[in-house]
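Risk mitigation, structural track. In case the binding assays with glutamic acid fail to produce interpretable data, a predicted complex structure has been prepared as a fallback.
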Amino acid sequence: MNYTPILEEIYTDIQPLLGEGKIADYIPELAHVSADKFGMAVQTIDGDLYHIGDSAEKFSIQSISKVFTLTMAMQLEGDKLWTRIGREPSGTAFNSLVQLEYENGIPRNPFINAGALVVTDIILTHYGNAHRSVLDFIHILCRQADIDFDRAVAHSERETGYRNAALAYFLKSFGNLHNDAVQVLDAYFHHCSLAMSCVELARAGIYLANGGKLPWNDQVIVTSNQAKYINSLMLTCGTYDSVGDFAYRVGLPGKSGVGGGILAVMPNEFSVCVWSPGLNASGNSLAGTRALELFTTLTGISIF
Ligand code: GLU
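Fallback model:
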């Protein structure tokens, strides 16, 4: 299928939405981006790439990094992971402390911040260096060695991330963080600060559309069953507290970040990344969600 005309139609349709929504500024360094940016990239498992708009411009991937760190934790621990993290939608804010208290320090899922901190803790335990190991992994996924953290963003979050610090120490009090909280937080902030473009992110996510393997060399990243698990978690927990609305409108597993990016997956077909920094009330990219909704509507392709 040639997706170019569809991307062009979407690009025209979403123009009135650009500048709508709210740019995340609770991490001060994120506020500098201009509101009218929009990019979209589709990577097929056959190796074709379609993209439009600001698709080559790097942005802060923020919580989309949780997909990649979860993948690493699954490689390392398999099902043992689920003794420390749940697999249910949270129904509360991504950085809520309340739920963690009720549930004795077991985060609801790996895509809320508490869950991602436990995932980072696992990576740190296994590799000793949770900065380098994640960068190396991303380089393998993208076949590109120049993808890096945006250290100004990581620093900005470290200076202001009081709630994440509270979550980390809270997890520690329940015995669900094994490493030093400051070290875990520093690694987590760096993972969130990864600067990538839509084209790079769509490429990085292609293993999830291809049964866990990289299509260009058949390298196994995770088993096909684990790819199913990750996609299922994206569908049920990947887009904050409006995950039901996102599934209804888009019909694909997706993971969003407060930088305005969304990575979505159509198994056996493609991965797609969209970026526009204005966020809707739930924290998902406003124009990005609409663009994905249009994409599945116009192509007639979704998991349903
Ligand atoms: N680094 C951000 C935080 O922890 C990630 C939030 C997100 O993208 O959901 O607040």
